[in-house]
Specification:
144 residues; 6 helices; DUF5958; DUF5958 family protein
Amino acid sequence: MSGISSEDGRAIRREAERVVNEVAQGLRTLDDGTAWFSALSPVGRETVLREVAGYAMQAHITAADGREGVARSGVKPRANPSVMICMDPPRYGFAGLPADEHVKAFRVLVSVFSVADTRRRLTYCKGTCGHAWHNLPTSPGEMP
């Protein structure tokens, strides 16, 4: 990764994990998450977009999740990130989009992840989950 040290990259990825999961669980607003994302350097934004795309893949997003997430994101359905996430299968090259599309991509990815992750928390992980990110404290802050 050029332009960012491996230590800085790890710190950004840890913070992204916390912020994105707080948004997904309603402990932080999407606008608050977007403000955090917007304050990152361009390289930091690319790092986060790759990370959140990975979360979406791990959550096994569906086409329905994509459509619902786009509707929640506040991003127009015809914007590049919206179209990419609603493809079957979804396209995940969000970090490769032009920099002026990164905020839209973040909003779409986090919103779609929120939909899919909520579904998984309520079905597959219900009552038996040991994932730290599914067991956040009720106020934003440190991961358990």
